[in-house]
Amino acid sequence: MKIQYQHRHQPFHTFISTDNTYPLHLHKHVEIAIVLSGKIHITVNQKEYVLSEGDMVVIFPNQPHSYKTTESSRILLFFFDAAFPGDFTGDLMKHMPNNPMVPKEHLVYYVSNMLKALYDRYTENCDNRLLKAYTSVILGHVLPLLSLKKIEYTQDLDSIQRILAYVDLHFLEPVTLDLLSRELGVSKFLISRIFSDQLRISFRDYVNGRRLALAQMLLLSTANPVTEIAFESGFNSLRSFYRAFKKEYGITPNEYRSGAQELI
Predict the structure, then answer these.
(1) What is the CATH number of the domain that holds 181?
(2) Range of the domain at 11
(3) Which of 97, 127, 150 corresponds to the end of one domain?
(4) CA dist., res. 255 & res. 132, Å (int)
(5) 67 in the same domain as 14
């Protein structure tokens, strides 16, 4: 079955969805969904879960998933880059849950209230640091409920997921099609075709997208010089960083940082 690759550029985004039905897709972001009312069928890694009011699901990066509403549903959705909450990045990038669903009765009562408060703060355009704080506290309560297991490339993931998981773990290093082919035992021509035909993005743009997501977070949350951030994010030259950043966001890193500071 063909999997749609969904491009999300914002480091954090949340909204309420009504009667959500969405075909099989994956993306580089972490996704949290909590049911506000009704019932929804969510398939994650080929296993279907039926969620009712108060139930939650946590979908890790590059996990194929889909939504189906048969009658009615209202769900609160959160999307954020694995680098966004900081302290939990390693857990989110190097592990996957045995069971992504958290039933209402297993949630600490105030987690659902915190999710709703996080949604309210986002709609009020609050400081990103506050969004990160809320997200970290929520993850601190929820991740232990998921029985995380370390990703095993050869056992747990199909070709697309293995490729994306490897890139997500090594994007700060010099990653090439030849290296990926050797490490995963997959033809580099097949890898290139997966990116172009199924994910609708070039291999280079995907790798740069992971690096730019980290750079964006560092620009917003640190006072580090732009040159330092470029190399910390995996770029091998300041020129390539500026070119990739302007292609993605339409402005330079300095302009992006200045604009974000004016909004705080």
Answers:
(1) 1.10.10.60
(2) 4-150
(3) 150
(4) 23
(5) yes
> Contact 16/36 with Cβ under 8 angstroms?
yes
pTM as predicted: 0.71
Task: For residue 139, give the CATH number of its domain.
Answer: 2.60.120.810
pLDDT one-digit tens code per residue, 64-95: 899 999 999 999 999 999 888 888 888 898 88
pLDDT for residue 52: 97
- pLDDT value of position 1: 46
Query: What is the C-alpha separation between 195 and 161, in angstroms, rounded?
Result: 12
- Best CA proximity match to 105, nearest among 33, 36, 58, 55: 55
- Amino acid identity of residue 249, one-letter, is Y
Domain total of the chain: 2
- The amino acid at residue 30 is V
Sort 158 into a burial class: Cβ within 10 Å, 0-12 / 13-18 / 19+. Answer: exposed
- 102-138 pLDDT, tens digit per residue, is 999 998 778 999 999 999 999 998 888 899 999 999 9
